[in-house]
Write a structure and sequence with these properties.
Length: about 450
């Protein structure tokens, strides 16, 4: 519809200009030729050099010179023996041109039809004479007839062709889009493995289909991660709940044989593990949802010093290297949790010491936590950041872990525009946190 409307506007403007200029141009051309021929004959008559037979001018074959009594004094060969058929128009003022359009009978060498007749009185040595000229308008009228047919019949036909061609071309071009839409309509949350067809045209529709498939890939991975996350979370929560329930059921069944102090301690430990898992799950859920906690300027050197102070006395010594203010813009709670998780992980695996450093390099704040434990194999250095993933060595050392600490720490670093990676370190493992340095005002 838009293409047809635009074409209609263009054709309407073009047709209007054409109809306003072409007819007058054609008539003006005929008028100019005839006037030139009549004036030439009038000049000859005024000079007394009027021949008996007038020479036809270009496109002007009918010329007559008639006296006041109606006698033909000179004419072109086609009109020499004819009566003054052009002398019917009354022309009295010398030097003035009189013009009319009228129907004339067939003349020798000319066709019947409408003629442009021109008369010019002129004073000559023979008295007042009138020079007449006539040019057939049949050729002009035929041209205008074809022009009107082209404008009033051809334009609608062209518009129909534009509409049909555009409809067919657009329909053909959008056919792959319809196939993509139909395939997308069939894809459900239960089956995200299907993909839309990718046409080989190499145009925007190909890019659309490829982008759609990439989006479906991400959705499928996200859905699979979510299902695995729910299953792992259910499993991790079931273990402390089952242990807590078993202890309480045994104590309730055999109250006389129960050491209530030990049972309470074990129940409290199970409850603390549940609380830790739930807290980590909630923080992960907030990070996944893009929730931004209250942020302010946080000195990572101060956070590290507070971590060391809270852990006195630690299981293994934590050696904090001397550091200078290292401001970052972020959530104090999340950044403290990031460092807590890394130090907890290092404490579980360290043999004799943990090295903690906070440095500023260019526009980055770098925090490293290194231990001298058994280390992490290179092939597992990315897998440990997957949720609920615990290596076999970690399960042996600490049966109460949830496998959420390191994934949560990486999510926190990413949410603050930074990274968390594992670098080469012998012996043990070295975790490196890189955060943007805050350089703004207070």
């Amino acid at each position: 519809m838009i293409a047809t409307l635009v074409a209609a506007l263009v054709f309407t403007a073009t047709s209007t200009i054409t109809l306003a200029t072409v007819p007058s141009s054609l008539h003006g051309l005929v008028y100019a030729r005839e006037e030139l021929a009549v004036r030439r004959v009038a000049n000859d008559a005024r000079d007394g050099q009027l021949p008996a037979e007038l020479e036809p001018a270009s496109k002007v074959h009918l010329l007559q010179v008639v006296s006041q009594r109606g006698k033909v004094l000179a004419a072109t060969p086609d009109l020499r023996s004819d009566p003054p058929i052009l002398g019917a128009m009354r022309a009295v003022q010398p030097g003035k041109i009189y013009v009319t359009e009228q129907m004339l009978p067939p003349a020798l060498g000319e066709e019947e039809g409408e003629y442009l007749v021109m008369a010019m009185p002129v004073r000559t040595p023979q008295g007042l004479l009138t020079v007449y000229g006539a040019v057939s308008l049949n050729e002009v009228n035929r041209s205008l007839t074809w022009l009107y047919l082209l404008v009033f019949l051809g334009t609608p036909l062209v518009l129909l062709m534009v509409a049909g061609t555009t409809w067919a071309v657009v329909g053909f071009a959008l056919r792959p889009v319809e196939r993509i839409r139909a395939e997308m309509a069939e894809i459900t949350g239960q089956d995200l493995s299907r993909r839309v067809p990718v046409p080989d045209t190499g145009d925007e529709i190909t890019n659309l289909a490829a982008t759609t498939n990439h989006t479906l890939d991400r959705l499928e991975r996200s859905a699979e991660t979510q299902r695995r996350f729910v299953a792992d979370a259910s499993h991790e929560l079931r273990s402390p709940i089952s242990a807590l329930r078993t202890q309480l059921e045994f104590a309730n069944a055999y109250p006389e044989e129960t050491d209530w102090a030990a049972t309470g301690a074990r129940a409290l430990a199970a409850a603390e593990r549940l609380t830790s898992i739930i807290d980590e799950l909630l923080m992960l859920a907030k990070l996944d949802a893009g929730a931004v906690m209250h942020r302010r300027v946080v000195d990572m050197c101060h956070v590290a010093a507070e971590q060391v102070r809270r852990r006195e006395p630690p299981r293994v010594p934590i050696v904090l290297a001397p550091c200078h203010p290292a401001p970052v813009h972020g959530s104090p709670v999340q950044l403290d949790r990031l460092l807590t998780n890394l130090l907890d992980n290092a404490t579980r695996h360290a043999a004799t010491r943990i090295d903690l450093t906070v440095t500023v390099e260019d526009d980055k704040v770098i925090v490293t936590v290194a231990d001298d434990g058994e280390g992490i194999p290179p092939e597992d250095r990315e897998r440990v950041f997957e949720r609920f993933t615990r290596l076999e060595s970690a399960r042996v050392k600490d049966k109460g872990g949830s496998g959420l600490g390191l994934p949560l720490s990486r999510e926190i670093a990413t949410a603050h525009g930074g990274t968390l990676t594992i670098a080469e370190h012998e012996p043990g493992a070295r975790f490196v946190v890189v955060l943007p340095l805050y350089e703004g005002g207070p």
